[in-house]
Amino acid sequence: IRKHLRTPIYAFFRPEMAIEYRRNKTSGKNQKHHMFTCAARGCKHRVARNLETQDRTSTKNLKDHAIRCWGKDTVTAALEMQNLDKARGLVKKHGGKKNGLLTTAFTKLKKAGARIFSHVPLTKPEVRIVKDRAFEKLMKSGRPETYIPHPTTISRDTKVLFGKTRRRLATFFQNYPGRIALATDAWTSPNHRAFVAYSAHWEENGEPVSAMLDFRELAESHTGEALA
After folding, report:
1. pLDDT digit string (tens) for the chain, length 228 residues
2. How many angstroms separate the Cα of 158 from the Cα of each of 146, 168, 169?
3. C-alpha–C-alpha distance, residues 120 and 220, integer Å
4. pTM metric for this prediction
């Protein structure tokens, strides 16, 4: 059932959903309902959805209650994300309570628009994954008409996309009227492999924007001498 409940409005309710039978006041019959419990701290209100009516997929009552508990701005920002998992993660991170930080978090995630590119191309094994039988079965499950391009097509399009993105970013950085901050971060993975990332940060229309410029595996430990 949960796979069909993907709109971000469900982020404001606990993932555990109950099923109850309630008596219809008009017909007197017991009808099946989904019961959603509000995830806000201190709120135990439950919203019922009748599964035996034409509006059994409606989220209006859920949205109305979410606005009362979390505020209209927060709910609107969450719905604009169009991603239930990310919305639920932010609600959990902010402690299940209404605050301005949550609204800001939803808005920033929606507007992030991070521009990412790297000059490290996909390896041949990574490209050939599209011809793997298990991968094809997964992609076409329930959608047999799904088109999966040939590895050569993916390789060619990736190189073209990379070239265009690199030129666009280079032109943007050269013409940007303000300052661009460059940052680097290096770390060692649990399996003792060293990596380093390079990123750029600037401001557009009052909003922070970031772009990852490169991500590399190092041949040796990320000491200051090695990075220099």
Report:
1. 555 677 888 989 988 888 899 888 778 889 998 999 998 877 889 999 888 888 788 889 999 998 888 888 778 878 877 778 878 877 776 555 555 556 556 666 555 544 444 444 555 555 677 778 887 888 778 777 788 888 888 888 888 888 888 888 889 889 998 899 999 888 887 777 788 888 999 998 888 888 888 888 877 766 666 666
2. 20, 15, 16
3. 18
4. 0.43
> How many other C-beta atoms can be found within 10 angstroms of the C-beta atom of residue 149?
11
Strand partners, 148: none
The CA distance from 211 to 202, in Å, is 9
- Measured in Å, how far apart are the chain's first and last C-alpha atoms? 54
What is the rounded CA–CA span in Å between residue 200 and residue 65? 41
Question: CA distances (Å), 108 to each of 63, 64, 104, in order?
Answer: 21, 24, 6
